[in-house]
Structures are given as C-alpha cells and as structure tokens.
Amino acid sequence: MPSDADQPGADQPGVDQPGAEQPGPRAMNVLRTPLEPCSMDPMTGFFRDGCCNTGAGDRGLHLVCAVMTEEFLAFSQSVGNDLSTPRPEYRFPGLTPGVRWCLCVSRWKQAFDAGCAPGVVLEATHVSALEFVDLDDLRAHAAST
Questions:
Q1: I want to staple 65 with a disulfide (CB 3.0 to 4.6 A). Which of 5, 38, 85, 122 is the partner?
Q2: What is the per-residue pLDDT across 27-64, written as a single tens digit (0 to 9) for each?
Q3: What share of the chain has pLDDT > 90, as a percent?
Q4: Rounded Cα–Cα distance for residues 10 and 110 (Å)
Q5: Nearest Cα residue to 61 out of 113, 100, 19, 3
Q6: Whole-model pTM above 0.90?
Q7: By the 8 A CB rule, do 133 and 112 touch?
C-alpha cells in the first residue's frame, strides 16, 4: 500500500494545508545553477509553481523533474501510484507520456532500480535530490531540453 505522500497532490498547499509555507530564495538544481521551471502546463511542483521546489510540508520530496513515459506510468500504477487518472480534488490533471512532472525522488529511485526510470530534466531537478540519488544516474537519464 502506498504512503499518503505517494498519492497525487498529497500534502499540496491549498488542498489540505491552507497557508502552507512557500519556498524561500531561488533554489539550485543538480548542476548547481538556478532551478529552472519543470512544467507550467500541467502546473507541477509541490507548491504548484511549475518548479520542483520543496519545503517543510513536502513529505514526498517532489524534487525530480521527470518526463513521463508509458513504461514509467505503467510501473507507477503497478506499485500503487496511479499518475494517469485525473484527481481534480488535488489539482492533479492525470499524466500522459511526454509530460514533465515533479516526481517524488523515492519513486524515481524505485523506478531506476526496476530499470524503468523516466528521463530527467537536470536543470529543473532540485539539488536536494542528490541526497538520495547519484548525479551520474540522473545524467544517464537526462532528457533533452
């Protein structure tokens, strides 16, 4: 059974936590340059600001800007995290192949270990992801931007 943090929109400010803390100064990416937006359509990120920012309430650590693939979406559903079905109550549109999304770093690592990790936009992946995954592994899955 997946944890609450794995569910689409889990811990989203404005959904369950009105007035939740917003990110502070501009964050850095895994290349140690300013964090770039991941996706504005669909609007992604823990703060739904388009970036893979994180903060105190982000239990899932939505740090990795991933490019969805059919293989990854099927894998995620098979482990109990359906990312394809829209969940409007969480401001979650449902994902399709080719869409960028701020993915929980633990889910990306789980998919990596299973051999089906989605591509990663390094410039839009939060530097804190390096606490959990190796930069070389992220580089090996770098998506063209």
A1: 38
A2: 999 999 999 999 999 999 999 999 999 998 999 999 99
A3: 75
A4: 18
A5: 3
A6: no
A7: yes
> In this structure, how many other beta carbons lie within 10 angstroms of the beta carbon of residue 69?
18
Task: Report the relative pairing of strands 119-120 and 100-104 from DSSP bridges.
Answer: unpaired
Per DSSP, the three-state class of 34 is strand
Q: How confident is the model at residue 25, as a pLDDT? A: 65
- The C-alpha atoms of residue 115 and residue 105 are separated, in whole angstroms, by 15
Place of tokens 């979406």: 73
Taken in order 126, 127, 130, 131, is the CA torsion positive or negative?
negative
Q: Do the Cβ atoms of 95 and 68 come closer than 8 Å?
A: yes
